[in-house]
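Title: [Solved] Putative proximal rod protein 3D structure

Original question kept below for reference.
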Amino acid sequence: MNEMPAILGLAASAARHAASRQAVIATNVANADTPGFRARDMDAFSPDDGFALRRTSAAHFAGATRTDASHEIRDAGADPNGNTVDLEDQVLRGIEAARVHDRAITVYRSSLDMLRASLGKR
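Solution (posted by the thread starter after getting help):
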């Protein structure tokens, strides 16, 4: 039973990360014709990100915190106007982000269903 809150938190974090990535991709697509715009993306979600280190004392070092920062896509070729957005690539990245989001929501729902069943609330 102790595993349930962790799995719910992990699934929620994965869904939030996928939604953030989808927003970055949407910004890229919206700026596909903007001269000099550099396409961005986010690193893949890591399950370890949902389990931050905890300090039991203020004297202890804090663990690294998770960041959802986007980064420039380095290997993207630029158009003559300096724009690096490739719409086909962005569509594929968007599909990948949508699949990750759907998978996270499925895990979240299934976990809630199991929790409800164990409580007799189904």
